[in-house]
Amino acid sequence: MSSKPSQALDSRSVDETEVRALYRQLLSGWNRRNAGAIAELFAENGVAIGFDGSELAGQKEIASQTFDDSAGAFVSKVRDVQFLNPKIAILRAVAGMVLPGQSDLAPDRNSFQTLVAAKSNNHWRVAVFQDTPARFDGRPEEARSVTEDLRRQL
Predict the structure, then answer these.
(1) Strand pairing report for 123-133 and 42-49
(2) How many Cβ atoms sit within 10 Å of the Cβ of residue 97?
(3) Is 117 helix (H, G, I), strand (E, B) or coil?
(4) Are 113 and 92 in contact (CB under 8 A)?
(5) Alpha carbon distance 92, 20 (integer Å)
(6) In sequence order, which ranges of 32-116 are alpha helices (DSSP H)?
(7) How far apart are CA 127 and CA 47, in angstroms?
(8) Which of 62, 66, 123, 132 is the most exposed, having the fewest neighbouring CB atoms within 10 Å of its CB?
(9) In sequence order, what DSSP letters do the residues of 4-47 get, joined into one string?
(10) Distance in angstroms between the alpha carbons of the first and the last residue of the chain
(11) What is the per-residue pLDDT across 6-27, written as a single tens digit (0 to 9) for each?
(12) pLDDT tens profile 19-56
């Protein structure tokens, strides 16, 4: 009996753990207001699309981002990680933000985050990160549900 399926599952498990860690490092860099640490996680030509729709392309541009005093700290929950192939993964998460001086989430800052990770030279890097507002226009019960789910992460 071959051990290849088991090895493939073990490898996938390790890769998923590494992709999740990459995402946590990205949010940690944001929460520490460290643009350089964030940029290091990206592929050289990686792209970051912010909550407001702004786009930063490449490590140099990502490293040059600034943080204003109103930027809060992310709280998140990974919903899933999917592999398109052994070297490309998509992580989907829901995130909220605790604003400076506050202890609870700001529901209007809830978002869905998508991270596309690419593996090169045995290292996972962010190819694309997108932070999309979770507005749920006309569906306040869904917005409340996301906020409550995230509050459990605090």
Answers:
(1) parallel
(2) 24
(3) strand
(4) yes
(5) 10
(6) 35-40, 59-63
(7) 6
(8) 66
(9) HHHHHHHHHHHHHHHHHHHHHHHHHHHHTT-HHHHHHTEEEEEE
(10) 46
(11) 565 567 788 999 999 999 999 9
(12) 999 999 999 999 999 999 999 999 999 999 999 899 99
Please state, as a whole number, how many other Cβ atoms lie within 10 Å of the Cβ of residue 95: 25
pTM of the model: 0.88
Q: Residue 128: what are its φ and ψ, rounded to 5°?
A: -145, 135
Q: How far apart are CA 89 and CA 11, in angstroms?
A: 13
Answer yes or no: CATH 3.40.50.920 is held by domain 4-151. no
Asked whether 41 and 127 are in contact (CB, 8 A), the reply is no
Q: Which helix or strand (DSSP H or E) is residue 149 part of?
A: helix 140-151
Tokens of 152: 């459990």
